[in-house]
Amino acid sequence: MHRVIAILENTFKESLRQKILLLLIIFAVLLIIISVFLEPFALGEAPKILRDFGLGATALFGVLTTIIIGSALVHKDIEKKTIYTVLSNPVKRGEVILGKFLGLSALVFLLVCAMLIMHQLVIFIYEGTFDLRMLISLPFTLIEVMVLLGILLLFSSFSSTTMTSIMGVIFFVVGHAMPDLKLFADQTQVPAIKTIAYGFYYILPNLENFNLRIDLAYGLPLYWDQLLFSILYGLIYVILLLYITKIIFEHREFK
Amino acid sequence: MQAAIELQNISRSFKNHFWQKKKQVLRDISLAITKGEVFGFLGPNGAGKTTTIKIITGLIKPDSGNVAIFGQAVTSMAAKKRLGFLPESPYFYEHLTGYEFLKLHALLHDLHDYKVRVDNLLTRVGLSGAQDLYLRKYSRGMLQRIGIAQALVGSPELLILDEPLTGLDPMGRKEIKDIILEEKNKGTTIFFSSHILPDAEAVCDRIGIIIEGEIKEVGQLSELLKKGTKTAEMTLEDWFVRQTEKSTVRK
Q1: Minimal Cα–Cα distance from B197 to chain A, Å?
Q2: Which of A56, A76, A242, B32 is the most buried (most CB within 10 A)?
Q3: Residue B62 pLDDT greater than 80, yes or no
Q4: Could you give the CA distance from residue A140 to residue A148 in angstroms, rounded to a whole number?
Q5: Any idea what DSSP says for residue B41?
Q6: Which residues in chain B are closer than 8 Å to A255, comparing Cβ atoms?
Q7: Contact B80/A17, CB-based, under 8 Å?
Q8: B-chain residues within 8 Å CB-CB of A18?
Q9: Distance between CA atoms of B14 and B43, rounded to whole angstroms?
Q10: Of the candidates A14, A36, A27, which has an alpha carbon nearest to the alpha carbon of residue A58?
Q11: Residues in CB range of A71: below 8 A, 6 or more apart
């Protein structure tokens, strides 16, 4: 495990020191601050808009950071041959994948935490009180990011950085359209299309499971059994993705 | 006596794209490197030196044949613990400092008391003044030296260096050669590839010549030089050019 921690620490530092991260942070901070100025357009719904916009900005920031840094995480090491020296050490290839996954996940976790704290401060400035219920979104945003990172690592273990980022965006968009896909599968009358639509629905990650933005912003009730299911679903999905990536990476040759 | 590296009948071919014909890069090569020797693996560009090294370090697999380090599979943890490797034109994590980079490699070698080891290595390769500098700010020579330090961090019994002297100025080459000789005196087995022949002459016990994926000659430098000519003054460079020309004429 200590070798995984060494890779984790290295990935964390490398990712944290990338200039692009600073731009993403500025972008995220601006998004949260903008939410305060939406009040005149909110038609009495300002508190809800403030929450919805803040949680949305936090999730988008986590996803963008993951896609931009995560797409290059493994492929850059292969392209620039840094992987040669790492793998010549007594370290298993699966440990490298796990360390990289945990390193970037840890960084995104801290950044999302910072964003949520800032969101709380904005709510406090605006309303004179915190709304700690918003923090329930933290584990779900993190699991969504981990699922996306798992997909990115899987693709970057055998394809280019560009292809990996494109796949990351596609999976993000499709993953949030899963309820629509289910509706389509339920309603279509063509058996072959119905089978294919259900196939995609069950195989592709349903990222809407981790989206609590509307429920939290509009004060809707949360059901703990559903939340628990979402967490287990996400964790199992991540474990499967990492396992497949490990197998591909173990058989990969570095020509 | 068990060999430090043993390659038996290794062949390997590649194709760059699936529609292209496979190109044979290594043709049935066999080599045994004795413990404690400095072995120079020489050949022109594209001869198959780096491919051979990648097979020895487990980065790629041969199409056929066997390879072992100290009798163990090259991908085993036991073999990797005894190995230090510097790849050709190394490119390291540019956002890490020299110290952090060596610390990472020390931890991958299970060296939890890494501080003294890392400090000593930085001093040994002349980089203690640059230990807090990011690697992206290192010059080519500094990168090569931190690369050597990284290869030495686990106190390896076998050191594999792919073109360690390429791109260095005369002073840089001397420093790397001095480190190779120091390691040799400690009993470390060293396998290094190069096409800079005078440097190989200076440090090698034995050399092997690879041309177009085939091992043409293996032996002690003095024997090889005598074998090819009746003049005792022939240098390795003259000999090497002659061997390459012979191979081209035969084709």
Answers
A1: 25
A2: A242
A3: yes
A4: 12
A5: E
A6: 14, 54, 60
A7: no
A8: 95
A9: 19
A10: A27
A11: A152, A156, A161, A162, A164, A165, A168
When pLDDT is averaged across residues A218-240 and rounded to a whole number, the result is 92
| Closest among A82, A234, A219 to B136, alpha carbons compared | A82
Residue B113 is predicted with a pLDDT of: 84
Q: What percent of chain A has pLDDT over 70?
A: 97
Q: How far is CA B67 from the centre of its chain?
A: 16
Element (H, E) at A79: helix A75-79
Name every residue whose Cβ is closer than 8 Å to that of residue B158 and which is 6 or more positions away in sequence: B4, B5, B69, B70, B82, B83, B84, B188, B189, B190, B191
| Cα Rg of chain A (Å, integer) | 20
Ramachandran angles phi, psi of B186, nearest 5°: -80, -10
Q: Do A14 and B93 touch (CB under 8 A)?
A: yes
Cβ proximity of B91 and A80 under 8 Å? yes
The larger pLDDT score, comparing residue B198 to residue B210, is at B210
Q: What is the ipTM of this complex?
A: 0.83
Q: Find, in chain A, the residue whose alpha carbon is nearest to that of B25.
A: A255
In this prediction the pTM is: 0.87
Each residue of A69-110: pLDDT tens digit? 888 888 888 888 888 889 989 999 999 999 999 999 999 999
Residue B122 has pLDDT above 80, yes or no: yes
